[in-house]
């Protein structure tokens, strides 16, 4: 989701900061990043995470990616992100949030 809103391929971020955002301990972030790196989905270096396989990363999320992004696009009236066509369109019969 973070990568949807920034343009560089590498996210400048520390493990500590990701842990703070997620409300978890830093070693858990490090373990998760090593797991994703081992699967060839990302490249993690000191202070940066580079996404290598965006589609694979989305699949690894097991359905936890996509719904919040679609809601963001719907509520903001935009189709932000790297691939605007990947955000599902909503019908005009759905009520608008003001």
Question: Main traits of this protein?
Answer:
98 residues, alpha+beta, three-stranded antiparallel β-sheet, 5 helices, globular
- Identify the CATH architecture: Orthogonal Bundle
Distance between the termini: 24 Å
Beta-strand content? 5-15%
User: Which fold name is given in CATH as the topology?
Assistant: Arc Repressor Mutant, subunit A
Unreliable residue stretches: 86-98
Helix content range: 40-55%
> What does the main sheet amount to?
3 strands, antiparallel
Mean pLDDT: 78
Total domains, how many? Answer: 1
Please sum up the structure shown.
By secondary structure, the chain is of the alpha+beta class. The chain has helices at residues 2-5, 15-22, 26-38, 54-60, 67-76, and strands spanning 10-12, 42-45, 48-51.
Textual characterization of the structure:
The protein has 98 residues and is α+β, with helices and mostly antiparallel strands. It has one domain (2-81): Arc Repressor Mutant, subunit A (Orthogonal Bundle), CATH 1.10.10. The chain contains five helices and three strands; from the N terminus they run H-E-H-H-E-E-H-H. The protein has helices at residues 2-5, 15-22, 26-38, 54-60, 67-76, and strands at residues 10-12, 42-45, 48-51. The chain has a three-stranded antiparallel sheet with strand order 1-3-2. Helix 2 packs across helix 3 (26-38). The chain is globular, with a radius of gyration of 15 Å. The protein starts with a helix and ends in a 22-residue tail after the last helix. The model is unreliable at 86-98 (pLDDT under 50).
């Amino acid at each position: 989701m973070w990568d949807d809103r920034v343009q560089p391929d590498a996210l400048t971020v520390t493990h500590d900061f990701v842990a703070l955002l997620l409300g978890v301990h830093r070693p858990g972030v490090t373990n998760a990043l090593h797991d994703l790196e081992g699967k060839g989905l990302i490249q993690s270096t000191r202070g940066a995470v580079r996404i290598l396989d965006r589609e694979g990363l989305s699949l690894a999320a097991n359905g936890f990616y996509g719904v919040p992004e679609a809601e963001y696009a719907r509520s903001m009236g935009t189709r932000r992100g790297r691939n605007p066509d990947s955000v599902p369109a909503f019908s005009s019969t759905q009520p608008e949030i003001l």
